[in-house]
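Appendix B, record 7
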Amino acid sequence: MVQENIYNVPCLYEKGYRKTFSPDMPVTVQVPGSKSITNRALLLATLADGTTTLRGALFSDDSRHFLKCVQDLGFETEVAEDKCIVRITGQGGTVPLLEASQYVGSAGTAARFLTAYLGISNGVYHMDASEQMRRRPMAPLLASLAELGCEVIYGASSAERFSERELSVENFPKGELSPKSFPFTLRGHGFQKDSISVNIDESSQFLSALLIVSCLCERDFTTHIQGSHGMAYIEMTRRMMAQFGVETMRQDERTFLTRSGQHYRALDYQIEPDVSAACYFYAMSPLLNVPVMVEQVHFDSLQGDAAFLRILEQMGCRAFDTPQGILLEPPLAKSFQGVTVDMSACSDQAITLAAIAPFADTPTTINGIGHIRLQESDRIAAIAAELSKMGIRCEERRDGITIYPGLPRPSVVETYEDHRMAMGFALTGLRCPGIVIDNPGCCRKTFEDYFTVLDDVVRRLVQ
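Structure tokens (predicted):
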């Protein structure tokens, strides 16, 4: 239970946990809607012509910030949180208000997607974010928008600071230019070019954002990329674009083409359960030697984090896709092996794997995750710091980490305002006593009821 802004993780082994589950009666869990799909669907709904109904939508800090931004742009919405339903009436790519202020909080998808949309729209938009989001990368996307003809004025975060005629780079007060991130003002002029290049080494969201809005160009639009990070998320974006009526073709490894004349259509759209959230519960299977099923999670998911289950299979688990959801059975040997894996396709689960790695029989090496140093926290450094506090040997590298087996000692886990640090390292405490999660409330970003769901699972395991 969360108390006084800390969460004392209940150690099942300390509680005398002995309950045996069978594949016929696994630990079953329900998780909320996908953050990644919800936020993409929110933008696609604004671009569509007509009213889109989103069912199974996630309501969290990130999605609420995104939804509030949509409302602040003048889009008509109808929201029923208790039913997880959002209705948005899109205007076919037109933004209702020609000037507006936007606060995206710490939501990376809202930050990148709305910036791209507003940067190619004809209007003036004042953008700001939380201190955490102000530290995260935006420069490659903003550089691409500037190349397309958008004026980007750094430091102007509200409509009150500058009059319309003052919003130009030439008139911007000297000495107030900030690093190329929030806050800034966008003064869009539509598409001044029909091709762009963007570097995605720091975030694949830059490319997703540009692809989604590319159909608003009156000519065929070509997007060239540098880097190859996060392509699973790009495929999610392309598949969702196609569901809403717009195809973008991958011409080669570095080039995407969106044909002109395509338009998004309004849909009645069902959002998948969040596979990223599901992975914390699937990780309990090898950790606690129990079969786990997360309802309605399947391998044909749009979400790349389904690849994490294949990693758990490499550790000795067995996965079966059933009509109810994927069933993950623990290793037959009742212990699990460490792995060496490239997690570039499911990097949000690097913390999850790191949290259970000390209990493996052999070392675990995670590669291909250098970009997570630039997310809500420097996640590689945070993993190394928190495991080291527990007495676990780690070897940190620029783009990865190796974790050696050991018995973690009691520790207070600093979460760095990072929801994945809080959720992931709670797993460690299920296996060893004395693990305390500081500031568990940071989970509001994507899964505000995480610790309530976790407590419910623990109760079922010890009954």
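Remarks on this record: The mean pLDDT is 92. The longest helix spans residues 35-47.
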